Amino acid sequence: MPDYKNMTAVEALRHAKEVSGLTAEEIASRMGVTPRIVRSYLDRGADYEPGLGKIPGLCRAMGNRVLLDWIAANLEEELEVSAASSRADVLTSVARVTASLGDVQRCLADSEGRGIDPACAREVRSLLSEVIAECRVAQSRLRGLAAARDVRDMAPLYSLKQKPRRPWWRFWEDRA
Questions:
Q1: Which of 28, 34, 56, 71 has the most CB atoms lying inside 10 A of its own CB?
Q2: Position with higher pLDDT, 163 vs 64
Q3: In a 10 Å sphere around its CB, with 0-12 CB exposed, 13-18 middle and 19+ buried, how is residue 150 labelled?
Q4: CA 71-74-76 angle, 5° bins
């Protein structure tokens, strides 16, 4: 799934078009507008976005919900968590997600003999909510890095333990 939170409206439109597999002319024909209008929505250089009333028509014409998913992602509240300062921070967050998902699997495995009864279903739903919450934390920790458009905007996250770099003049010492 694309990172809708860090996409612009034009990028979301271009992605929706790509997912649909349609041309601008086909989308325009399905919407009942001229192809020039659809192309203007897709032009990266233009500051022209479709109005709110055009979004449902675009979704129907392209046969997908990409634009609605983009809107929903941009409406979600961001968690206030500290940004990941290393690759290890990200791996720890992902490990917490995995552990939460393991709790769900364990609960379902315990229900094998009796089946999934209403109490088990409630417990699984609760555990899945915890998985989703942990996923949101992991996503939020990467927010700043994901929002950067270029590696020059933000330094990559490395592991805490890095190999020391050798000076270039010591290269020949190892070859002897």
A1: 28
A2: 64
A3: exposed
A4: 110
Q: Closest Cα partner for 82 from 72, 92, 73, 74?
A: 92
Count of beta carbons in the 10 Å neighbourhood of residue 112: 8
Structure token pair of residue 116:
């999934």
In sequence order, what DSSP letters do the residues of 4-58 get, joined into one string? GGG--HHHHHHHHHHHHT--HHHHHHHHTS-HHHHHHHH-SS------GGGHHHH
18 confidence band (pLDDT: 50, 70, 90) = very high
Quote the pLDDT of residue 76.
75
- Closest Cα to residue 9, out of 47, 57, 61, 39? 47
Predicted confidence (pLDDT) per residue in 81-133, tens digit: 888 888 888 889 999 999 999 999 999 999 988 889 888 899 999 999 899 88
